Amino acid sequence: QVQLVESGGDLVQPGGSLRLSCAASGITFSAYAMGWYRQAPGKQRELVARISWGGNTNYADSVKGRFTISRDNAKSTVYLQMNSLKSEDTAVYYCTATFQSSTYWGQGTQVTVSS
Q: Is the distance from CB of 49 to CB of 57 less than 8 angstroms?
């Protein structure tokens, strides 16, 4: 079955950096668009970044210039490098894998930005 396992969430101070990883199994990883979503307490889940099977990327305006999404097809892993973190980046971050009309979700990893 399909599994998306996120890791790398942590408590970090404002201005700090984190790298999230999402290891996929049970899919032909290279054929899937991969994404990162987040959900803060009391807010709707929102798209953070997305990378197509061909490597094209797009980002939420709130993270442009600070976050970078990348993928390693040989490792079936997608990454989210997060720099210059702000308190408003605090959320549970979810990895997604999408192919045509099917989207799979990971369980999420907590990122807390606080001094």
A: yes
